[in-house]
Each structure stands twice: as structure tokens, then as C-alpha cells.
Design goal:
This protein is of the alpha/beta class. It has 18 helices and 13 strands. Helix 5 links the parallel strand 3 (86-91) and strand 4 (113-119).
Length: 432
């Protein structure tokens, strides 16, 4: 089988010989099972005996019950030689009760075994598992395809062009490298990249959706992902039976991407109350449907009191919740989808650097503020520009905080400006 390359796969390969247990978490159907299969094939291609690689899924009730009843004997059945190294690849680990406690026991008893486990929700795979595995666990997240992974499947040559531009942007954001921009001729790859970006913004990055050939097929797959999530995660695992309220909440939040959450409006429209809405939104975060972005303030206490903005981890799932798969030129929310895209792209590469938004009482606003050895304001202007344009709010932030650099994301423009001593770079969204 030909696999679509995942960026996380390269990261896992670097650390696979370490002893710690690997926990790979992420939403349903983001490709965790496939990632384990890729890892199994890679290990075999690098000289590991296939009999030393044990692949089990805890969706199999019999396997799960046998493991749960006696994990030591379960492992001993496969790992027969203490002088050899074994790899246990456990898919859907969260289905096993007390899996963290059992993995801790096995880790402490079996120094020759590498355990790698996946789970579909960070609610159970980190909070319950993690408390037993402190100092024994490396945690990874596998999300739907980012734009580079999407391009790698659609057009490998174009993905290399994207990487060249993307590397320049990353070096500008995270290092002291200046972003040299030659303002001589139009970028000849923009139109091709924009075509792919539009499909990505409309249908998202779930692997099966990306591989689907028709829009109708993509729609059906997204419906299946959404309903499976409700049935398996929300109803079966979390015991939330009022799916109508949950669907309504997702739909309401879908209208609000890039905007402040109004808990009062959500409570009223969903027929709920404040504390329940907080609980349900937390579940949406922990199960990889939405991400909340907190405001930027010098005072952490003030920051925690302010309402967050909401973004969807996958725009296709968000558009399914709204039943809107129209092209961008027919959408009133094209700018919001672009902002959602920029957030996800930055959020996946920022590491531990804080990311916030800036908003004043006078409603001056900057979409994102990235704190990488100093504040970097980032504004999304999803429009075609012939020359640089800078908003009053953006200038206000620069005047107040005097950042060394700033970024404005446009549809098409590569350009440079200097405001006081701040280097402002304009980049096409297709290279973020």
C-alpha cells in the first residue's frame, strides 16, 4: 500500500529507540492507525523481525479483555525472549479501562519492549493515562492533514515549491532571519496554490476526504466522520445523550470562527446554561473539534477573564456542520475560513510559544500575536493587493508594543514595509 507521508512520522522515527512509551492522540479518522502501519513497515524495512512487532487494536473486544484481565501474561505470549527488543503497537488504547496504570506496570517490568499507543480523544488518553506515566511517556498529536501534507498528496512538485516559501516565512517568524522579498515579478505559482487552498478550505484535511475523487464523496465521508464522532465519542464514551443540543452547539460555534465566544448567546440558543456550555465546549476542545484562542494582555489575570475566540481544527467538518460547501467567491465567510486556516497553520508549528489575539476596549484588533522572543503581530487580509496596506489597528499595536517584526497575510502579495523600526512583511496565504 502507498501511504501519504505525514510530518509526525518523521518526528516519531527520530525518537523510536528511546524507552519511553509513545502516546499518539488525535481526532477519529485522522490517520493514527495508518501511522502505526507505516511505522511497522518502516521497522521491518530497517531490520526488525516481523514477529517482534505486535500490532493490536483494542476495538477488538476479545483482545482488549485478555489484555485487561492479565496484561503481564498478554505481553509474555508475544515477547518470548528477554534478550530481544519488541515493539507493541496498540491502536485505540483508550477503550481499555485503566490503560495508563497497566502500561506503567508493563513499562517497569519489560525493559526490552517499546510501547506505542494511539487514542482518539485527549480526554481519556492524557488525563487518565498521563497521571500514571509521568516521566515514562512521550505525547504526540496527529491532526488532519496540514496544507503541506495535503499538497504532498495532490502535487508533489508544487509541495516542494510551497516548502521553499514556507521555510522563508518560518525562518522570519521563529529566527532572526530577515525575509528577503524581491518585488520584481508576480509569483507564477500563486494561482495553482490558490486552487488547492480553496479545496482545502472547503473540504478540510481528513485523509479519506483528501483522497476522495468527487465533492459528493467528500461530503458523505465528512458526514460519516461527524456522526461517528457523535456516536462513539460523545454518546458511547462520554455518556452525553442529548446529541441535539450538542449538534446545535457545534452549529452555533461554526458560525463564530474567528469571533469572540458569547456564552450568553450559546446558552440561550442551545437551551442550556452557562456551566453546561463550558463543559460541552471543553469536550469539543479535548476531542479535537475546536480550539480556543485567548486574548493577549500584559496581565495574566486579566487575560483569563476575557472571552476567547474559537477556531475549528478542520474546516471541512465545520462546513459540514453548516451544510455549506460553496466555492469561496460565493461565501460571506471566506475571510473567516482564511483566518481559521492561518490559525491552524501557526498553531501546529509554534511549539510552546504563546499565541493570542489582541483586542482593546475601543475594539482595535489584531488577529494573532505570536510571542517568539518578543511580540509578533499577525494580520489576515484575505484580499488581492497590488501594494501594501496597513490597518489603523495594526499600526496601533506596533506603536504601543514596538515589535521588531510583523506579518500581514494576503491572497497574493509579497512585499516589505517599515513602520518606525518594525519590519512588516506581506506574504501570500498559500505559503504559510
Amino acid at each position: 500500500m502507498e501511504y501519504i507521508q505525514r510530518n509526525l512520522f518523521e518526528e516519531i522515527k527520530k525518537w523510536v529507540e528511546r524507552r519511553e512509551i509513545f502516546i499518539i492522540k488525535g481526532p477519529r479518522q485522522a490517520g493514527k492507525t495508518t501511522l502505526l502501519e507505516m511505522l511497522k513497515n518502516w521497522l521491518m524495512n530497517n531490520g526488525v523481525n516481523s514477529e517482534n512487532i505486535i500490532f493490536v487494536t483494542f476495538e477488538d473486544i476479545e483482545l482488549r479483555e485478555n489484555f485487561s484481565a492479565n496484561p503481564k501474561d498478554f505481553v509474555k505470549r508475544f515477547a518470548v525472549n528477554e534478550n530481544e527488543r519488541y515493539y507493541f503497537l496498540i491502536d485505540e488504547a483508550h477503550y481499555c479501562p485503566d490503560v495508563g496504570q497497566k502500561l506503567k506496570l508493563l513499562y517497569d517490568l519489560n525493559k526490552n519492549i517499546k510501547f506505542i499507543a494511539t487514542g482518539s480523544s485527549s480526554l481519556e488518553i492524557t488525563s487518565e493515562t498521563g497521571k500514571f506515566l509521568v516521566g515514562r511517556m512521550f505525547s504526540f498529536e496527529l491532526l488532519p492533514f496540514n496544507f503541506h501534507e495535503y499538497l504532498s498528496h495532490k502535487d508533489e512538485n508544487l509541495s516542494r515549491i510551497y516548502l521553499e516559501g514556507n521555510k522563508k516565512v518560518r525562518d522570519f517568524l521563529f529566527f532572526d532571519n530577515d525575509l528577503e522579498i524581491k518585488e520584481t515579478k508576480e509569483d507564477i505559482f500563486i494561482r495553482e496554490l490558490q486552487k488547492h487552498l480553496e479545496e482545502y478550505l472547503i473540504f478540510g484535511g481528513y485523509p479519506e476526504v483528501v483522497k476522495a475523487k468527487t465533492d459528493e464523496e467528500k461530503n458523505i465521508i465528512l458526514k460519516n466522520i461527524f456522526n461517528t464522532y457523535l456516536i462513539k465519542d460523545v454518546v458511547s464514551y462520554l455518556n452525553i445523550t442529548d446529541t441535539a443540543k450538542f449538534r446545535k452547539l457545534i452549529s452555533m460555534m461554526s458560525f463564530s470562527i474567528g469571533n469572540l465566544i458569547s456564552y450568553e448567546n450559546l446558552s440561550r440558543n442551545c437551551g442550556s446554561y452557562f456551566k453546561e456550555i463550558l463543559k460541552l465546549i471543553d469536550i469539543l476542545e479535548q476531542t479535537y473539534i475546536v480550539t480556543l484562542l485567548r486574548p493577549f494582555h500584559k496581565s495574566m489575570i486579566t487575560e483569563l477573564k476575557k472571552n476567547p475566540k474559537v477556531y475549528f481544527i478542520d474546516s471541512g467538518l465545520r462546513n459540514y456542520a453548516l451544510n455549506n460547501f460553496n466555492s469561496l467567491d460565493l461565501r460571506a465567510d471566506a475571510g473567516a475560513l482564511a483566518e481559521n486556516f492561518v490559525f491552524n497553520q501557526i498553531n501546529q508549528i509554534k511549539g510552546d510559544y504563546p499565541l493570542n489575539f489582541w483586542r482593546t476596549t475601543a475594539k482595535a484588533e489584531v488577529d494573532f500575536v505570536l510571542n517568539v522572543n518578543g511580540f509578533i503581530p499577525i494580520e489576515v487580509k484575505f484580499e488581492t493587493m497590488k501594494k501594501p496596506k496597513i490597518t489603523r489597528s495594526f499600526r496601533s499595536f506596533i506603536e504601543n508594543y514596538k515589535p521588531k517584526k510583523a506579518l500581514i497575510v494576503t491572497k497574493n502579495l509579497w512585499a516589505s514595509e517599515t513602520i518606525q523600526e518594525t519590519k512588516v512583511k506581506f506574504i501570500p496565504i498559500t505559503y504559510l
